[in-house]
């Protein structure tokens, strides 16, 4: 045998090299930032399109708005689908508000300075 090379067989118990969790060229935590961006798109007001602030749901159509964005629609109709909207139909969504606050904290933890100006509240 030339060179006396010994082949080494890796057993299933030996750890292999850790796969990279970062897409090339996008920096640390890129996957988490991308997932957070997708989630924040779902947490936008149907009227002002900013991240929801004090989210409320209209009972008749279930569209979600910031409480300030829907206040002038009570007694008339939903600004998206024009379903009648009455004061008794407006429901504060505290669970959604908690999720939005957690997203904000996660955004701060990820130190996403370059995108922070884009996430405005109404």
TrEMBL record:
<dbReference type="InterPro" id="IPR039503">
    <property type="entry name" value="BARD1_Znf-RING"/>
</dbReference>
<dbReference type="GO" id="GO:0005634">
    <property type="term" value="C:nucleus"/>
</dbReference>
<dbReference type="InterPro" id="IPR013083">
    <property type="entry name" value="Znf_RING/FYVE/PHD"/>
</dbReference>
<dbReference type="GO" id="GO:0003697">
    <property type="term" value="F:single-stranded DNA binding"/>
</dbReference>
<feature type="region of interest" description="Disordered">
    <location>
        <begin position="1"/>
        <end position="27"/>
    </location>
</feature>
<dbReference type="GO" id="GO:0006513">
    <property type="term" value="P:protein monoubiquitination"/>
</dbReference>
<feature type="domain" description="RING-type">
    <location>
        <begin position="45"/>
        <end position="81"/>
    </location>
</feature>
<dbReference type="Pfam" id="PF14835">
    <property type="entry name" value="zf-RING_6"/>
</dbReference>
<keyword id="KW-0479">Metal-binding</keyword>
<dbReference type="InterPro" id="IPR001841">
    <property type="entry name" value="Znf_RING"/>
</dbReference>
<protein>
    <submittedName>
        <fullName>BRCA1 associated RING domain 1</fullName>
    </submittedName>
</protein>
<dbReference type="InterPro" id="IPR039577">
    <property type="entry name" value="Rad18"/>
</dbReference>
<keyword id="KW-0862">Zinc</keyword>
<dbReference type="InterPro" id="IPR017907">
    <property type="entry name" value="Znf_RING_CS"/>
</dbReference>
<keyword id="KW-0863">Zinc-finger</keyword>
<dbReference type="GO" id="GO:0006301">
    <property type="term" value="P:DNA damage tolerance"/>
</dbReference>
<dbReference type="GO" id="GO:0061630">
    <property type="term" value="F:ubiquitin protein ligase activity"/>
</dbReference>
<dbReference type="GO" id="GO:0008270">
    <property type="term" value="F:zinc ion binding"/>
</dbReference>
<dbReference type="GO" id="GO:0097505">
    <property type="term" value="C:Rad6-Rad18 complex"/>
</dbReference>
């Amino acid at each position: 045998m030339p060179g006396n090379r010994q082949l080494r067989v890796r057993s299933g118990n030996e750890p292999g090299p850790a796969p990279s969790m970062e897409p090339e060229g996008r920096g640390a935590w890129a996957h988490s930032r991308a997932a957070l961006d997708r989630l924040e798109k779902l947490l936008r007001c149907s009227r002002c399109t900013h991240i929801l602030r004090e989210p409320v749901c209209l009972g008749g159509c279930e569209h979600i708005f910031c409480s300030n964005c829907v206040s002038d629609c009570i007694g008339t109709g939903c600004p998206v689908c024009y379903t009648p909207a009455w004061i008794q139909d407006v429901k504060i969504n505290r669970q959604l508000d908690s999720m939005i606050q957690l997203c904000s904290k996660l955004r701060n933890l990820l130190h996403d300075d370059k995108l922070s100006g884009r996430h405005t509240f109404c």
